[in-house]
Amino acid sequence: MKNILYAIYTTLVFIFVVSCSDTEQFRVNGTIKGEPTMNLRAVYYADGAYRSVITAVRGGEFEFYASSKQPTLLEITDYDYKPLGRLYVSNGNAYEINIDPTDQYAVEAGGSDINTRWADFLRQNADSLRTDAGKAVADYVRTHPDDIVSTLLLLTTFDSSGAVVDADSLMSLIKPEARPSSLTEGYNYMLQRLVTSEALGDMDTIRYIDRGGNLMVFDASKQRCSLLSISVQSDKRTDSIVPALKRMNKKYDKSEFAMLDFSLDSDTTLWKSSIRVDSADWKQGWAPGGLAAIGIGKLGVPSVPFFIVCDSTGNQLYRGPHIKTAEKTIKNILKK
User: Fold this and answer.
1) Which positions ≥6 away from 13 have C-beta within 8 Å?
2) Which residues does residue 311 pair with via DSSP β-bridges, in sequence order?
3) CA distances (Å), origin 53, targets 48, 65, 334
4) What is the pLDDT of residues 182-214, one digit of tens each?
5) 222/333 Cα distance (integer angstroms)
6) Is pTM beyond 0.70 here?
């Protein structure tokens, strides 16, 4: 009799513990194509802080538990932070995700209707997303303003770095109930900083320190067309940015065209190390403060690399992350 009572008691305790844990956390089960053995990271924002879970994948399968009192966006990455898949999660639920590490759009997800529809959209629109993700997301947002998937796509798939005005407009189209503040608070703050009249208005003079340590001023009003290139030491700078700057510096007359190759490296030692191999005879500069540097901070630069092309009035004709687009804009202005 004692054994029976003990068994009943143990069962009740187990049920109580499980029921508590089910409401105080969420579970994610997943598979990875190719059946690898590896480690994963799951990163999300919850209860006022960014949180990270590390879990092992064995034979392509994984499972982990985490907690978020409010629904939140969870991103699954490899150990080097390469994004593999995303879910919209909250406590008290179990989710499933099937990941193809070679194709971010070939994802399947379950556990909620939101995750299923989100993954279905990515798979069904993979070709469009690869060629023009901005248009594909914008089309969905305009036709689904009452769907939280619109918010999730805007946050994760729409590249707002070169289209902050479009991103701001699309966010405003989504109905309040489909864009909870727990998801959008940080994103909206960023947009508000980037779409100010000062950021999008005429570009003013920019003070910088040149290679010789002198304080200089870059004035876009002295030439028909000017380019402000903002970058940090990186492979992209070496492989594509510097070659483009060399082409333009050689092609255009200094009386018509000026450019400032501005660095956001953390200190002058790192900056000078990065430009040592450039063999540059164009203006190169640095200023303390990173994105908040005097003259740069008010331009609302969202990320690097970033390029601004303007005319002699300071009117910004291109703002964005693509050096090729900047180069094409300059070519159209100078007709060369």
Assistant:
1) none
2) 225
3) 16, 8, 53
4) 888 767 656 666 656 566 678 888 889 988 889
5) 15
6) no
